[in-house]
Specification:
Length: about 500
């Protein structure tokens, strides 16, 4: 696979993945690399450009992260952002100072005639987030932009193609930030724009064909975006040599299992075996109220059912997994405290008889996975699917799970989702779903007393699900949803809307 590469050197800043995604949005492939490996990686990859990210340190701190001098001498254009700008100035002989207060937020900025700012309005707004600032520029550098409080808001040595910005062009609040990244890539690094999802699919299918030949491949299929796109991509290369096992635990959303089979076994012509194991799962969950026990039981049962089905297929050569780039980056970092033991298919490698794992999406961000999905002809219902927990509705039914409760929840959830989608609000919401609480309350219907379930509606906005806010859905939409639910779903007489952010709540109720 031949495409140009930009190396994004990670100094631990909060926007690092965002920088990498912005570069990719401009059709240039980039790789996020820890600062300690930058020099080695540049030597190996021969990138067309390098970007230094921000980071929480001061360049004068005892163990301040830095890069080998070889990085500056490689003759490759560099763009330093925030800490990356200060580091470049300091390493090349300039000096950095600490301001008495942190400068944070939108600032008016004046850009000069520099290739980094070519074709842009010279008076604009940028986004600052720093305490230290560059006080004396290294030799050969000139100021390229200023704000009232930060004279060296950008500086450059055009002859050596070294550029630095104190502000953050990658964040949406920086008005012409995207243009700055585009200028760096196309005017300074002479990018060809060869990273497109069409090219990716073509190259991957070619590489997979060569690797797989007529060997056997197996995929655990959950219906989620990543595993669905990974399997469809491998199917292009392996055809019927790919077998997918779809474990239907009976805890999916309304008619979702049928939809999965219709799209993948039907439209896409893939070899998908549906293991209908809902009886097994539901009987194992009988009377279980603890969320963590539900997760453990479902995780263990999933493995059991998968193993049973995999045995019928026998030995395979490859196992496909839908690992994506943020998983690869995160797996290198420290894990934090366990709030919920999120069940996924991580346990599979131990129980399947295979030689090697294939992860065709391990270089892609989520938005790229979605584009690949469209390239492969998958419908929006699959490609835009919101995150859905592995244990499914079991952790959205508070208390013990029964078939009746699943049925009530599926109907309520279906109405809520449909109304949000029809009014256009869904596209700005990260996750939206219903929860069946274990509270019953008194109501009155047709002059009669009722004593029925309370359901909660949950809709949150988020960037990555780590934190979130509750979505401000218009009242008239909530009103319509409420009236449809009580009219159409028996056994429900009260509806509440969850208005808690995360933290302190979590997205799911269990
Ligand atoms: P919480 O509830 O922890 O959810 O704020 C964060 C994200 O994780 C999803 N989630 C799960 N996903 N297995 C999964 O595969 C689980 O057990 C699980 N619990 C929560 C949740 O839907 C949200 O996207």
């Amino acid at each position: 696979m031949s495409h140009q590469t930009v190396i994004v050197v990670d100094f631990g800043g909060q926007y690092n993945q965002l920088i990498a995604r912005k570069v990719r949005e401009h059709n240039v492939y980039c790789k996020l690399v820890p600062y300690s490996q930058a020099a080695k990686e540049i030597e190996m990859t021969a990138p067309i450009g390098v970007i230094f990210t921000g980071g929480p340190n001061s360049v004068y701190a005892p163990n301040a992260p830095k890069v080998d001098d070889a990085v500056y001498d490689a003759g490759v254009p560099i763009l330093g952002i925030c800490y990356g700008a200060q580091l470049m100035a300091y390493a090349l002989g300039g000096s950095v100072k600490s301001a008495p207060v942190r400068e944070y937020g939108r600032r008016d900025i004046r850009y000069s005639d520099n290739s980094l700012f070519s074709g842009m309005d010279k008076e604009s707004t940028c986004w600052m987030s720093h305490t230290d600032y560059v006080d004396i520029l290294p030799e050969g550098f000139e100021i390229a932009a200023s704000t009232d409080s930060c004279p060296a808001a950008a500086f450059a040595d055009e002859s050596r193609k070294l550029y630095a910005v104190q502000f953050h062009p990658e964040v949406a609040h920086c008005l012409q930030g995207s243009k700055i990244i585009e200028n760096f890539l196309y005017k300074i690094c002479n990018a060809a724009g060869d990273w497109t999802m069409g090219n990716f699919v073509r190259d991957q299918v070619c590489a997979l064909k060569e690797k797989i030949g007529d060997k056997k491949v197996l995929c655990a299929f959950s219906g989620g975006v990543d595993s669905a796109v990974a399997a469809t991509l491998v199917h292009r290369a392996a055809g019927d040599n790919l077998s997918c096992i779809f474990v239907d635990h009976g805890l999916l959303r309304y008619r979702e299992a049928d939809e999965v089979m219709r799209v993948f076994a039907g439209d896409m012509g893939m070899n998908v075996v549906k293991a209908d194991a809902s009886d097994d799962f539901i009987s194992k969950l009988e009377g279980v109220r603890s969320p963590e026990r539900k997760r453990k039981i479902i995780g263990a049962e999933f493995i059991k059912v998968f193993e049973r089905e995999a045995k019928k297929i026998g030995k395979v050569d490859y196992l496909v997994q839908g690992t994506i780039y943020p998983d690869v980056i995160e797996s290198g970092k420290d894990k934090s405290a366990v709030i919920k033991s999120h069940h996924n298919v991580g346990g599979l490698p131990d129980i399947v008889d295979f030689d090697e794992i294939i992860e065709p999406l391990r270089d892609l961000f989520k938005d790229e996975v979605r584009k690949v999905g469209y390239e492969l002809g998958l419908p929006a219902s699959v490609v835009e699917r919101q995150p859905f927990p592995g244990p499914g509705l079991a952790i959205r039914i508070i208390g013990a799970v029964t078939r009746d409760k699943i049925d009530i929840l599926q109907r309520v959830d279906c109405i809520f989702r449909k109304e949000l989608e029809d009014c256009g609000a869904a596209k700005d919401i990260w996750q939206y779903f219903a929860v069946l609480t274990n509270t019953k309350s008194v109501g009155v219907m047709g002059d009669k007393r009722t004593y029925e379930y309370t359901v909660a509606l949950r809709a949150v906005t988020a960037v990555d699900g780590m934190t979130c806010d509750w979505a401000h859905i218009p009242y008239d939409v909530l009103s319509k949803v409420s009236s449809r639910i009580v009219n159409e779903v028996p056994r429900v007489n009260r509806i509440v809307y969850d208005i808690t952010s995360k933290p302190p709540a979590t997205i799911e109720w269990e």
